[in-house]
Amino acid sequence: MKHKLVAIEKDLHKALKRYCLDYSLTLFEATTQIIGTHLNNNGYIKDENRDTKN
User: Fold this and answer.
1) Short-list 54, 6, 46, 52, CA closest to 30
2) Are 32 and 43 in contact (CB under 8 A)?
3) What is the tens place of the pLDDT at every residue in 7-37?
4) Under a CB-based contact definition with an 8 Å cutoff, are residues 5 and 13 in contact?
5) Are 24 and 33 in contact (CB under 8 A)?
6) What is the spatial distance between Cα 48 and Cα 46, in angstroms, rounded to a whole number?
């Protein structure tokens, strides 16, 4: 997998570092988890386990 650099604000970087240390995650794992959760909660990612009735 190819990784790319992303610029974030200093206070966000500090919070993300703390999150990584608290949960023993790499920066990649933490950002993937946080962004994935946010996108899923806002309906951008289809939840395969969700009951969808049309």
Assistant:
1) 6
2) no
3) 889 999 999 999 999 999 999 899 999 999 9
4) no
5) no
6) 6
Q: Tokens 């992303």 appear where?
A: 6
What is d(CA 19, CA 30) in angstroms, rounded to the nearest whole number? Answer: 7
Task: Return d(Cα 19, Cα 26) in angstroms, integer.
Answer: 10
Tokens of residue 35, six digits: 């962004």
Three-state secondary structure string covering 9-36: CHHHHHHHHHHHHHHCCCHHHHHHHHHH
**43 token code pair:** 């309906």
pTM of the model: 0.66
Backbone angles phi, psi at 26, to 5 degrees: -80, 165
